[in-house]
């Protein structure tokens, strides 16, 4: 029997964006209901001795609906933990998902429903930069944890004092951009680069990190084009970029537009740049519609093990993932990296919940801001979660990868961008 609840409820019709600042308390003992001692007076909404309620917000519909596959991996992980581990510290996970269509006003509406109607303990894995930014204001006003945001925007860790209830998870987009800049400075020191980027904090963060890294080097930007997430196509932008005859195309897109950019590049016989595609659009589900034969040697960066890579066939974490995904989510393709992303982030949440000194919202935030070399399942070797009250970026290590045959192949060494900065 599966205990995890995975529900889709249509959005409300209105919401207000609220802004305030809140602080976290410190924990004490590990009780199951209203905590004693140092935990007294802290928020226990959504958590009991036997259950914990989490709420996620994803674009199950709309132009970025490919990301709607991620919560299926999360659900499978929590189903496995509930059924075979008795939950997390004896608490079964009740995971509810809302659809925001990647529209910030709807994101806040759904956050309100999760907090005020479902009474969740925490918002876990709100996806997207503009959408999660809108939720951040509401979550911090309400003093509700917004934990392990599914976005690499730098803002999630930029000001823990102003936004103490929000923390990201994946490597920052700015750091990823720096990694690509370092790669080109070493391997193509005189490269001329064209940039395609989504016109929001996501696209601007990665673009900014890249441009900062190449400043003063022989690598130069010769053309750039942006697009809006509501655009039907990026073909006009790709035609203009092709006219630059750049040596490199830096593709900073979400999955739908990543597929379009790869296809446009492959169809342009007069332009053959090195195509670098950012991590969030690097899933094989993005590449497959273009045809694997047409996306050979595309470069990206990774922090998770690729389920389609045979080097992980004997890996204990990958074997567990494959076995349990088939058991608790039959019919899903175990090689889909969106499911591994969901699985890995749910594993990280298990670690954070299990490390709470107090079973309270304040206790959770203390836990996620004090991670020390903590691994969650499916992270690449050398990648671990590290935070402090001043450092809100759990993962900051990436490794370059190149698409060969029908899968990604890692190359070079893992790059800790904290040390590289």
UniProtKB/TrEMBL annotation:
The keyword Signal applies. This is Leucine-binding protein domain-containing protein. The keyword Zinc-finger does not apply. Belongs to the leucine-binding protein family. Residues 51-404 form the Leucine-binding protein domain. Keywords: Signal.
